[in-house]
Each structure stands twice: as structure tokens, then as C-alpha cells.
Write a structure and sequence with these properties.
This protein has one domain: Dehydroquinase, class II (Rossmann fold, 3-Layer(aba) Sandwich). The chain is about 35% helix and about 20% strand. It has 5 helices and 5 strands; from the N terminus they run βααβαβαββα.
Length: about 140
């Protein structure tokens, strides 16, 4: 199984940014742990603060991966383009968020990704990524 993890804006600051919400671990540290924990899965990772780069990566991933785990960060709530990119591909996408977006500011309650996502997992910290990965594994079983 081949999965791509895509992170959007400011997620490169994990470990430093608002540790009370996002924790102290960098995503790179977490991703290394994820790779060692799920050795049977080929995992790739991409992060960008630029909306167009995220859209391009989603389009490039179509048919090259069994699934995409996407945390689009703030673009979740603003990007019709990312939502359209997900709708345009056949590769299933699971939307993840580290925090419970419904427990935060009102504008974070809207997602342009959710209507086109295979599923949504939020509020479980970094565990959200693990739950998404396990969902793909269970779908293949």
C-alpha cells in the first residue's frame, strides 16, 4: 500500500506553534515514528504553505497512490480550489485535523474538503493521522 500525507500552511511549525493545541513534536519526528510503526506501508510526505502547490500535489498523486491523508490547515476553510482538486481525482482522500475544529473559532467549522473526502478525522492530535492510515489499511483488508 502506498499513501501520501499532505500538510498545508503552518504545519511546518509543529513543535513550536501553539504547543497547547498542537503539542511539542515536529511533524518530521512524528512521520519517522509513523514510518517505523507501519513498515508495510510506503509513506510519502509533502508540506507547503502555498495553495497552488498543494493542488498540484493532489493532482499528481491521482492513481499513483492508494490514498491521501490531507491536513490542509487553514485552507480547509477557504480553498474551493483544493476541494475541487479532491473532487477531480479518483484517489480517496481522508481529511485530518490535529485539533477539534468545531471546538475552535466559528470560521473553522466550514470545510471545502469534507464534501469530497472519503472521511474526516479530527480532534485526536497526531493520532488523527494514525487513524486515517489505519482506515486505509482496513479498507484494503
Amino acid at each position: 500500500m502506498k499513501l501520501l500525507v499532505i500538510n498545508g500552511p503552518n504545519l511546518n511549525l509543529l513543535g513550536k506553534r501553539e504547543p497547547e493545541i498542537y503539542g511539542n513534536q515536529t511533524f518530521e519526528e512524528f512521520f519517522e515514528d509513523l514510518q517505523s510503526r507501519f513498515e508495510a506501508v510506503t509513506l510519502s510526505y509533502f508540506q507547503s504553505n502555498i495553495e497552488g502547490e498543494l493542488i498540484t500535489k493532489i493532482q499528481e498523486a491521482d492513481d499513483g497512490y492508494d490514498g491521501i491523508i490531507l491536513n490542509a490547515g487553514a485552507y480547509t476553510h477557504t480553498s474551493i480550489g483544493i476541494g475541487d482538486a479532491i473532487k477531480a481525482i479518483s484517489t480517496p482522500v481522508i481529511e485530518v485535523h490535529i485539533s477539534n475544529t468545531f471546538g475552535r473559532e466559528e470560521f473553522r467549522h466550514q470545510s471545502y474538503i469534507s464534501p469530497n473526502a472519503h472521511g474526516v478525522i479530527l480532534g485526536f492530535g497526531m493520532q488523527s493521522y494514525i487513524l486515517a492510515l489505519q482506515s486505509f489499511i482496513n479498507d484494503k483488508a
